[in-house]
Design a protein that fits this description.
With about 170 residues, the chain is α+β, with helices and mostly antiparallel strands. The chain contains five helices and eight strands. It has helices at about 25-35, 40-45, 55-60, 110-125, 140-145; strands spanning about 5-10, 15-20, 70-75, 80-85, 95-100, 130-135, 150-155, 160-165. The protein has an eight-stranded mixed sheet, sandwiched between helices. Strand 3 and strand 4 (about 80-85) form a beta hairpin. The longest helix is centred in the C-terminal third of the chain and has 15 residues, at about 110-125. The chain is globular, with a radius of gyration of 15 Å.
Length: about 170
């Protein structure tokens, strides 16, 4: 699968360099997640920890480039966003997650990365992508709904919602 996707344009005209994450990116990702808000870190990892642990970063730096892919988006060499696509073993359903540095929100980065994840899922033959969101994460829920995702309750957890999009 493609591990380098560059450049990626946002609807605001920003051009990002996007590539697959590697194990050598662990320190940069840890520093990146220190720069996102506490709330965004909680929404992304469902944990209130002040820092993202090595165990939380492993799926982001050790993607197999088939069932999973972790993308990093850079602006002028600075890491500004992270996007993950992680499929089940049957390549039927994949979970997605996007994190954006606070100073890059509202610039179309989320839109562009959701489109990228959708294209990559379709290339892999994945039927459906889904995002698991806290019901408090109104910005992500609204963005995903605008991009054609359908919300549904998460069975057994009224604080969470699943937003999904089917390709075939």
């Amino acid at each position: 699968m493609t591990t380098t996707l560059s450049p990626l344009s946002t609807r605001s005209g920003l051009t990002l360099d996007v590539r697959a994450a590697t194990p050598q990116d662990e320190a940069a990702l840890a520093a990146f997640f220190d720069q996102v808000s506490d709330e965004d870190r909680r929404f992304r990892f469902f944990s209130a920890a002040e820092h993202v642990s090595h165990d939380q970063l492993v799926p982001l730096i050790s993607a197999d480039h088939y069932h999973s892919e972790s993308f990093l988006a850079f602006d002028k060499g600075e890491l500004v966003a992270s996007a993950l696509l992680a499929s089940d073993s049957n390549m039927d359903t994949a979970e997605i997650a996007v994190s954006i540095r606070d100073d890059y929100k509202g610039k179309g980065v989320g839109w562009a990365l959701l489109d990228l994840l959708g294209r990559e899922a379709e290339k892999r033959g994945i039927r459906r992508v889904m995002a698991i969101e806290s019901r408090d994460n109104h910005a992500a829920i609204e963005l995903e709904r605008e991009k054609g995702f359908t919300p549904s309750p998460m069975e057994g957890d009224p604080t969470m919602v699943i937003l999904s999009k089917t390709f075939r």
